[in-house]
């Protein structure tokens, strides 16, 4: 077991939503998009949360601040994905409108710059070059310097297992080797120790589990670390959870928390079985350990978002926001998980 502590930072009805993005830059978190009612994207407001160090005397955030909308904003959307690179937030596609069709923007990102609270659209340098199609419930990560990785998700019909790399300096997309089957939405990826890690997701019939798929950018090839997804030696299958790279006791690890297991018969209109467990994967040992929590914990959930906060001492913690509860209620809380 790995020991950890949850701290509740905030509950704010203005933040009640699922299928949103949460991205952290320094000690600041930014929330964008999502839905409060099924198939109705909320507006394009960006909310800012100052993630001050938590202490027993000051464990919470006073409030979330809505950033005044600039003249140029993305179309409201759900099921988007975000990542941060070079001090900016990158958003790709998602679903928009009542029909919730994937938003097709010809391989472009929306980029939010928190230094001046502006949105710009970053388009590929050559519009004739191949680019990933619009989609929802995909996932993004980056290598920390110049490349964003985009994986899987749901196009207008079916699901995908593709992997694309975008160089932000040259503004060029490159299609990488596809991940192992099956195709899926709601998967999770993270970049750590020079590689991209992928797990979980929903293939249209069942949640995936029992495999940590690893992409090597140098070899442009995938390998797989198999494990028993029995909830004792490894996490059970799930989708719409998260996978985040953190240091735990100084060791490079991946952390997955929560997610949905057994989808609702109502599809996007309902909630399935939500999970409340947390697991740490030691990258060097290639072994899972379940996280034991001291004190209060968030309610089980899926369709939320989370990101990593790194302190000045190099310690990592995880911030989790919102999502969908098993009672089919959108959640408005923000929590911090510290190891």
Automatic annotation (TrEMBL):
<dbReference type="GO" id="GO:0019760">
    <property type="term" value="P:glucosinolate metabolic process"/>
</dbReference>
<protein>
    <submittedName>
        <fullName>Galactose oxidase</fullName>
    </submittedName>
</protein>
<keyword id="KW-0677">Repeat</keyword>
<keyword id="KW-0408">Iron</keyword>
<dbReference type="InterPro" id="IPR015915">
    <property type="entry name" value="Kelch-typ_b-propeller"/>
</dbReference>
<dbReference type="Pfam" id="PF24681">
    <property type="entry name" value="Kelch_KLHDC2_KLHL20_DRC7"/>
</dbReference>
């Amino acid at each position: 077991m790995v020991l950890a502590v949850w701290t509740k930072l905030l509950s704010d009805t203005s933040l009640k939503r699922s299928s949103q993005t949460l991205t952290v830059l320094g000690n600041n978190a930014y929330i964008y998009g999502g839905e409060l009612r099924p198939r109705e994207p909320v507006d394009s407001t960006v909310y800012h949360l100052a993630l001050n160090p938590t202490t027993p005397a000051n464990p919470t955030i006073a409030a979330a601040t809505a950033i005044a909308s600039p003249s140029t904003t993305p179309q409201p959307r759900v099921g988007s994905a975000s990542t941060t690179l070079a001090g900016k937030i990158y958003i790709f596609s998602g679903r928009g409108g009542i029909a919730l069709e994937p938003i097709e923007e010809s391989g472009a990102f929306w980029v939010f710059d928190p230094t001046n609270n502006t949105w710009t659209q970053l388009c590929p340098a050559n519009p004739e070059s191949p680019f990933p199609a619009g989609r929802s419930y995909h996932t993004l990560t980056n290598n920390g310097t110049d490349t964003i990785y985009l994986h899987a998700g749901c196009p207008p019909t079916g699901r995908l297992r593709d992997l694309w790399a975008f160089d932000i300096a040259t503004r060029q997309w490159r299609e990488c080797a596809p991940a192992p089957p099956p195709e899926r939405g709601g998967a999770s990826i993270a970049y750590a120790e020079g590689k991209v890690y992928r797990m979980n997701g929903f293939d249209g019939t069942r949640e995936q589990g029992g495999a940590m798929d690893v992409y090597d950018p140098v070899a442009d090839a995938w390998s797989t670390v198999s494990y028993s997804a029995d909830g004792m030696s490894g996490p059970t299958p799930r989708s719409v959870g998260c996978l985040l790279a953190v240091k735990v006791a100084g060791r490079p690890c991946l952390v997955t928390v929560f997610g949905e297991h057994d989808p609702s018969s109502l599809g996007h209109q309902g909630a399935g079985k939500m999970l409340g467990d947390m697991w740490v994967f030691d990258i060097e040992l290639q072994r899972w350990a379940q996280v034991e929590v001291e004190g209060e914990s968030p309610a089980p959930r899926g369709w939320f978002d989370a990101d990593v906060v790194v302190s000045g001492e190099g310690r990592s913690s995880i911030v989790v926001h919102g999502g969908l509860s098993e009672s089919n209620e959108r959640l408005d809380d923000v929590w911090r998980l510290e190891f």
